[in-house]
Amino acid sequence: MNLLINRTTPALALLGLGLAGCQPDIDAPTASTGSANFSSYVAVGNSLTSGYSDGGLYNEAQSASYPALLAQQFAKTGKGPANFVQPSFSAAKKDGSGYIKLLLVNGALTPVQPTPPPSTTNPNGNSYLGEAVAFTGNKLAGSGQDELEAYSGNQPDNLGVPGISVLSADKTASSTGVAAIDAATRGAAAAYGIINPFYQRLLPAADRGTKDYVTYIGQKSATFFTCWMGNNDVLTYATNGAVVDAANPFSGLTDTTSFGKGYRNIVATISKNGTVGGVCANIPNVTGIPYFNTVTVAAVAAAFKAQNAASPGVFISVAGTTPVRLATSADLLTLTAQAYIAATGAGSTPTNPLPSKYVLDAAEVTTVINRTNQLNAIIAKTARQNKVALADMNTFFNTISQSGFVTSTVNNSATFASGNLFSLDGVHPTPRGYAVVANEFIRVINDFYRASVPTVNPNNYRGAVFPQ
C-alpha cells in the first residue's frame, strides 16, 4: 500500500522519431546485483507481503505479490534465487479464503463478500460466490476463526501472514509495564498459530500454538530480505473506527516501547544481527486509503437530504463528552459504513446514529497519524542500526493518494475500484498496485546497493475486475 512515474517516455519517443535514422542504438543498462546478494531472498511481513487482495488470500493474487515480482526481477540479474517458494493453495482450492467480487446488484455495481451457503442461520449466504475456497470446516481453537487448508510444501520464502502485527509476532514484545496485559499479550503471540488461520496453515501441527512468528522466520537463512511490518499495529485499530475489541489483545494501537522491542527482534532475526542485506519498509498513512475516502460525510448527508429535506446531516456516535453529534468533513467514514447505513438507516437521526466503529473521527485521525509517525521513526532507526535500506512507503503512498500515479501513459489513482491500484477491500493493492510497490522496492534497492535490477511493467498486471 514505487512511484516510477514515467513522465518522460512520450517526449523521448517523439524525439526518437526524428533521430531514428542517424543515431546508434542505446543499450539498456546491464542488470546487476551491485553489493546485494539475491541468491536466497526471503520476504517478512503481513497481508501486504503475502499478496492479499480483494479481502482475501488466493493464488492469482499471491502470484502477483511484490515479493514474487521482486524474485522474478532479481533472477534477471543472473544471480537471483533459483526458486522462490510461495505458500499457494492447492489447485482444487485455488481461491483460498475467498475474495470480494464486484457484481451488479439491483442495477448497481456492488462489492459482494463471499459467504457460506444459505442455511437457517445464514439465509442470505451466497455459497462463496462459486469460488474454490480452502476452508476445512473446522474452527481454530484459539479464536474460533475458520481453519484453512494446511500448506504442505517446503517452508516458503514469502513469509507474509495476513493480520499479523509486530505485537502479535513476538512473544517477548509486550512491554506496557502492566503485568496482566503483558502476560496476556505475550501468551497470545506465542499461541498465534491457533489464533490466525493464515499463520496456522504455514506451521507443522507440532508448532501450532507454541511457535511465535519471530522464531518461525529465524528458521530461514536469507542472503537478502524485505521486511514490511507494523501496518497492523495501527491499521486494525483504525479500520474498526478506533474501537478496541476486548477479546483481541492486538486490536489497539501498539505502544511505542512494545513496538520497538518487537520490531528490533524481527529485523535482527531475519538480518542475522545486521549481517544480511535487505530493505525495511515503513507504515503508510492509513487514513489516505480508499477504505476511509470512498463513503464520505458529504455524500451520505446529501442522500439523507434527498430523502428528507429537513435532514441536518449525518449523526455519529463518538467517544468523549458529546457521544452523539453531527459529522464534519474531518470525520472519516469506513467503507463498510455504506452497507450498514443502507440496511439500518443509521446516521439519519440522533436516536439512530452511525456507530463509532464505522467512524474515525477527527481526534482519532490525529491519534492514528501521530502513532504512525512514532512507529516509523523506530523503523527508520532500526534500518540504520542494521545497515539496511529504508523504503519510505509513507511518503510514497501519500503521493499516490494526493496525485495519482502514471504507468506508461496510463493514469492510476487511489479512487476505489476504478483507480486500478487498490483492490475491492479498499486497503490492499490490486496486482497492478503490487507491481507499482515492487518497483518502488527496486528503486530503493538499486540506489542503496548500487544494483541495476530491472523494473516490471505495471500495465501488464490487472486492476480491479469489473463484471463483463
TrEMBL record:
Keyword terms, alphabetized: Hydrolase
UniProt xrefs under Gene3D superfamilies: SGNH hydrolase
Family matches, as Pfam families: Lipase_GDSL
Cell division as UniProt keyword: no
GO terms for MF: hydrolase activity, acting on ester bonds
Database matches in SUPFAM superfamilies: SGNH hydrolase
Name of the protein in its database record: SGNH/GDSL hydrolase family protein
